[in-house]
């Protein structure tokens, strides 16, 4: 385990990332797994074998990697947008296939500036959960419960809960994740104190990302692709959208 | 009617959508109607015959479909941006032909996780109505009245009202739509309770969408298309915009 | 004058616009003047002779026209972003040549749904004035004073003031423009009551437009044009921005 | 020194900029230094020799220059986004190499409308520091401390602190920078009073810029480059992001 924990030089998250990627790129099996989650965030989705597969599917071969990470004494977490995936129907219509989310990843500290990447835990905030987060006031708190195996035979075997609670002294919050896994018979707990400034970054960045994880940027971008969606002149009488079915 | 109601698996709205689209694509007449509303939101505007027509008009053949939907016990509603259409004048000027809106679609529940798509009702929020929505405080409420046949011979025959009212317990709102149709002699009522988190998503997503339904994104995008709208150097004395007529 | 006043069908601002453009396009001299102000907003900058000139300068030949207009009993005003113009130096650097603004245009009512376009008056809000507007609370008011001839021989001859003051009943504002022109020996006054919803649209749309009239969207767009502004690998040690001069 | 101070005509920041650029372009050595910081903001990064180097690296040859500047009696400061730089790994993954920031530049007044560009001092706000700024209330204040030589042999030799404190009369703030340089044995102090309107512009523009200096716009732009990141139909079962490692 210790051989897998990483030095995180606070002055450069990217070098750290690079190291992680080299490390990950040697674990082919895991790569193929996480590849399937189609999320630009996951470290393993970023490595070369992965991006080659993507290229085969017509993806850009580049994956941009820019999480916002909060490093604290006992644990760290990062957050990054995970875009929705789309499916094209025979009709040519593009529909959301899997919804986007804000992916949070937690790591334990295992020494000065060392965090245990191997034992990380993840929590994917839905659009509505992001709505809770960005609307929180200084006194508010929120808690979310997930069952990653919901609707599968393992339903209830793994329970995750994320909570955001204000500090007693009212300047900042505790961001905590609990993961109870009855399959592995483990219980995991992370708690990261954040400042109001760090929470403001999360709120502003999540507000920016929300329409993107909802896929609405793809709706509003359509017109640019349609050269301003012109209609032939003359065909311009006003029709009532509500009237039609 | 029951044969038309759909299972909505909450874990995947897209599969549901796909089913709807197959279903709709068999009803040619309706398709041609709703095609004319030119709004990326409508289900039927998305089917293949539709997109072919679009292609003929120089539209992208893809239509992206990503509504934000709130499913509750008795009813559900979805909301999605409906972009403005533009007309190009002989002068080359592009003007808004029909204004954009935020399209809301309501459906009754007709059983566990079943909603009656056939009897849906729609309500298109104007830019100013969106302004009311995004400025609402926790205690505020608002109500909008539409007559889809306004200025036509059927004026007053159909009356729609949408209201958003805070819960008594002050955490969330009721979103309700009433449609009185004297032509069909029907009265329809939908009410969907939403949480503050769901309302926060609506506010944030509508704030994002507002400049797009106003067409302002097309104004601000012009310069990118103009390669930063450069002027030949020398022709750069400052002129007073206000002074000119 | 009356022959110049226009019917403004509230259900379609664009047809109105079209008429105005035909009307304007016959006044060549004025066209050439207002062409020079390079602002996508001005009606006359949108007509064909204008766009031809633009094309000659490498502009897109299309001009998108989508003001937000508030029509009230005695007067109307519209607001629309007016993008900055840029100059390219011999060095290849692109600098702001004339700052952008939010252009407001006021018209008097001259009968039911008729507004006098010929006697319109304009007021261009600077970025900082937009800052005042978007930060206004329900009780706040603001007033701006402009001298379009500032620094010219006509300094002080024309004085414009725009004020935004809350209604007594505290739901909405009065938006008023006064123009005193000692050259023409005229005094002009417009006052348009707006609702909180209409003001919310103005605030949200102006907040969206602000970075664009500042030209910051051109800074943040650079990287996309630079294919994510990659640096050759290896040349990636962290340098201190503050240290350098 | 005086020969280096510049007239800043308040009606046109760009002409001023042009002059500065000519001036800077004669100082080759400094150019090469500041070129390396890769920030579109720095004056010297904008000059021709610079942009030629950039072009050689596949950069766009244009650099857009549009700071927001507040000129006051004793000093002035400007603020502008400084985008992150990225490194492409052999794997094809693009990672943040140096984080972006909001670059503030302070200059002393050296006469009516003259500011001493040569003795400017800079302070680069990190994403989290921007979070503090945009979340400040009317009564709040904040202070940041930087050591540009942190982790180098000169650590502690230069200390910078930026503070933003509300006016006593509660309409606006003082933005102050102190720089103590033990290497040059100098102490420098700037203080610029700003109005609530000017601060609102800073907050709104910084909120707009924050996702860009974090590099999140590059994440959300990926999909557009991926033509909506389509997956082949059929490969669309929902996978649980949290479940995977």
From TrEMBL, chains A, B, C, D:
Keywords: Transit peptide. SUPFAM superfamilies: ssDNA-binding transcriptional regulator domain. GO terms for molecular function: single-stranded DNA binding. InterPro entries: ssDNA-bd_transcriptional_reg, Whirly. Belongs to the Whirly family. It comes from Psophocarpus tetragonolobus (Winged bean). GO terms for biological process: defense response; regulation of DNA-templated transcription. The keyword tRNA processing does not apply. It comes from the Eukaryota. This is Uncharacterized protein. The keyword Transit peptide applies.
């Amino acid at each position: 385990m210790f051989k897998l924990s990483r030095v995180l030089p606070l002055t450069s998250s990217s070098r750290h990332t690079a190291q992680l990627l080299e490390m990950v790129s040697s674990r082919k099996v895991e790569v193929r797994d996480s590849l399937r989650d189609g999320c630009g965030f996951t470290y393993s989705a970023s490595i070369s074998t992965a991006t080659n597969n993507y290229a085969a599917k017509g993806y850009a071969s580049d994956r941009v990697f820019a999480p916002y990470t909060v490093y604290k004494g006992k644990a760290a977490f990062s957050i990054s947008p995970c875009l929705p995936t789309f499916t094209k129907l025979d009709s040519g219509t593009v529909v959301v296939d899997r919804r986007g989310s804000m992916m949070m990843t937690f790591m334990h500290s295992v020494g000065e500036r060392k965090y245990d990447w191997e034992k990380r835990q993840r929590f994917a905030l839905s659009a509505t959960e992001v709505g809770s987060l960005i609307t929180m006031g200084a006194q508010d708190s929120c808690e979310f419960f997930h069952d990653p195996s919901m609707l599968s035979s393992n339903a209830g075997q793994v329970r995750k809960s994320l909570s955001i609670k204000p500090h007693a002294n009212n300047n900042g919050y505790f961001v905590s994740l609990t993961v109870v896994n009855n399959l592995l018979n483990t219980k995991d707990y992370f708690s990261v104190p954040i400042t109001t400034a760090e929470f403001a970054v999360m709120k502003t960045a999540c507000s920016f990302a929300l329409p993107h994880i909802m896929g609405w940027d793809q709706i509003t971008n359509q017109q640019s692709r349609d050269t301003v969606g012109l209609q032939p002149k003359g065909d311009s009488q006003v029709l009532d959208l509500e009237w039609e079915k």
